[in-house]
Amino acid sequence: MRLQTKLALFSAASKVIVLLLLILGLPKLVNTVALHNADARLQLKEEKMYQIIEDQGIESFITEEDGNAYGSYNLFREEFISLEEINSGKVVNSIENSLRKVENEVVRYRVLSSTFDLGGKRYLLEIGRSLATIENNSKTLQKYALYVLAAVVLLTVFTDLAFSKILLRPLNLIMKRLQRVEHPSSFTPKKLNTTTQDFLYLNDTINSMMGQIQEAFQKEKEFIGNVSHELLTPVSILQNRLENLLADPETPESQLEKLVDNLRTLHRLKNIIQALLLVSRIENEQYLRNESVDIPQLAQEVAEEIKERAEAREVSLEVDLKGDFTLGKANQSLLFTMFFNVVNNAIKYNKPEGTITLTGRSLPTGYELCVTDTGVGIPAENLPHIFSRFKRLHAPDGESHGLGLTIVKTIATFHQIDLSVESVLGQGSTFRFRFPA
Predict the structure, then answer these.
(1) Structural class in CATH, domain 197-283
(2) Are strands 355-363 and 316-321 parallel, antiparallel or unpaired?
(3) pLDDT tens string for the chain (437 positions)?
(4) What is the spatial distance between Cα 253 and Cα 391, in angstroms, rounded to a whole number?
(5) How far is CA 333 from the centre of its chain?
(6) Among 156, 249, 300, 346, which residue's beta carbon has the most beta carbons within 10 A?
(7) What is residue 351's DSSP assignment?
């Protein structure tokens, strides 16, 4: 899972947890706020009531005809105000829930009770607000609070996603640059435009590491090239001497068989050296790419060249090349070697009376050529290593030196050809070449 995805999931999960906690505690919180708001409203009405009594006098509310009491309810009995004269010496100043009977109906109220003295008399002022109204307001507040919380969570999640994408952009650039590297020599160190020190350190470390790899790889290529070139001369001298001894009539017959075995071994050594030298020269770009090559025609030429070898192994070779395609900036001899090695391997590792099929077709992005055989196949665990140097995965003739497919891959990379392999053990393999348009 990508780092950006993990960060996004963690951010979303943490916000969901916070949202759930808020949802669980929201009713109690909103009820507390609603009651506090109702109490503040009752206290405000209490102050206004005292101001009216001070301005208009207590007589405007309580008269002898009213029986020393005043009461007022609004139309829906949501609020009430009562004022009465009391004889008790007890002082009451409180806000609490209380039940009141209004028109034969019991209603729950939040009641503010306050006593005050005026003109030698003591009065009790009560201001109430229906608890049902407060609860309705509380539910409305809860609903809108949930909407706001959900909107805030969504907004922060998307904000975090955008921020993490921006924050991790340098890391994505580093990853994409490394993914495009098909060969150490194709890596180009670049500076990273960011203020995040961790990413700058990572980029500098990768640049330094790739520089060391390029240097080591270059030394290896130079060493292989130089050694291969230097070994060819003594090997050729030894080969000439052995051939002379073999042609000498004075050579004892008992030595002739040993000389033939030595020549065969020397021939294998020479082939290995020449293969290494070829790979080294291709990697060092000592070959020119100044030809335009007709790929279907070249594949047909390879088929005709190797047809007799296939017949000798009782393997049928079928060709089905459709469409025209010319690869510019190519080297025809190298491409011939590439195809020849693949078809030759298909013959070598095929079954008696097996089949090899060369198929070609045009694609919107270029041209695809496949070499399919009905051979022994390649185990899945060996597929990642088939292009490695000196990796002998199977060699029924004992003559393979493990460089044939290395040469194929090197030539394909040199021409920017996408090469892939599909294989089923016991059924056969398909080498797929995709040429860029």
Answers:
(1) mainly alpha
(2) parallel
(3) 667 677 777 777 887 887 788 778 878 888 888 889 889 999 999 999 999 988 888 888 877 665 677 777 776 778 888 888 888 777 889 999 988 887 778 889 999 999 988 888 888 899 998 888 888 888 888 888 888 888 888 888 888 888 888 888 888 888 888 888 766 777 888 888 888 888 888 889 988 998 898 888 778 777 777 777 777 788 888 888 888 887 888 888 778 888 888 888 888 888 777 787 788 777 777 788 889 999 999 999 999 999 999 998 889 999 999 989 999 889 999 999 999 999 999 999 998 889 999 999 999 889 999 999 999 888 888 888 888 765 655 544 444 546 788 889 999 998 989 999 999 988 899 999 999 88
(4) 38
(5) 41
(6) 346
(7) P
Q: Is the pTM of this model over 0.90?
A: no
**CATH superfamily assigned to domain 291-436:** Histidine kinase-like ATPase, C-terminal domain (3.30.565.10)
Residue 326: CB atoms within 10 Å = 13
Residue 366, sorted as left (phi over 0), alpha (psi -120 to 50) or beta, turns out to be left
How far from 206 is each of 72, 186, 390, CA to CA, in Å? 83, 14, 29
- Domain boundaries along the sequence of the chain: 3-162, 197-283, 291-436
Residue 305 CA to its chain's centroid (Å): 47
Would you tell me how many other CB atoms lie within 10 Å of the CB of residue 238?
15
